[in-house]
Give the backbone structure.
Amino acid sequence: MDRRSFLRKSAMGGTAAAAGALAAPAYAQGRRTLTMVTTWSRGLAGVHDSAQYIADRITAATDGQLTIDLKAAGELVGAFEAFDAVTSGQADMYHAADYYFVGQHPAYPFYSSVPFGMTALELNTWYYHGGGQELHDELGQIFGLKSFLAGNTGSQTGGWYRNEINSPEDFQGLKFRIPGQGGEVLSRLGASVQNLPGGEVYQALSSGAIDGTDWIGPWADEAAGFQEITKIYYPAGFAEPGPGLSLATNREVFDSLPQSHQTVIEQVAAAANIWTWTLFQSNNAAALQRLQSSGVQLLEFPESVWEAFGRASDEVQQQYMSDELYKRVYDSYMASMADSADWVGRSEDTYQAQRNRILGN
């Protein structure tokens, strides 16, 4: 895959490609309105809140000189059409998990989550101080985007299942909703993987169209209502240990803004990164207790399943190494993760283990 092929694919793919030129930004008495599309249905706990936080803060920080008009999934374009809408100019910016756009370039999942990848802390460390942001910008240039990390859900779960998973063979024929490289891993284990927008998952699980699903974590999952359908829940998963969310602006639009407004977008994205992460953390523990009280079983995958996840994950990541940019992103990401894990393992992990032992937590 070369960059020209990616550009052609982006220019031709999706319903947004019909727009041949950038949509004219909206102006009124010196004020400008930018349209933000998202991959989230309105009201999805945490993720829609993150997009709304960004829209509100940019508008407030510029005293309304730059107003963000948020369009949730389906209000202007479908959830998975957000990328093409912004690259073509049908919309000005998107808020999304970039692993939804693995079809545009295989390196995009590194800015959300990859199997056995980074926690939220590790992702932020790489992004702001390990070269991750510069590579994100280089990736965005292929498609005419200016991108920033703009949220994190914290550690996500292994998902909801109709039946327990006792061995890798239990994934054979299993209809499961999971995006990004995590979906490729389960496909290699024999699952029939579907990548559904968040707003469609409850109905698919309720109707039997899927046998299980990942989503986010206890708070968002409880709000989605999955506990009404099944009581089998795996709190720890392999695919999304700290998924980032991204804010991407059409680069021509971004470059046309005054420097002060460009800085506001960058700084609000960084603020949303921390705000969203802590929003999920502040709600997850109580939600997990409520789920348990409602009869939800909290299970762990056996070691044989974890090992199968690991083998398949390596196969998935290695298949893209012929792409030069993917390999540079992968190498940078893995080197930073190794450094972070070494330090955290010697400091925070040891401290927390001793704290929990002493305090009886």
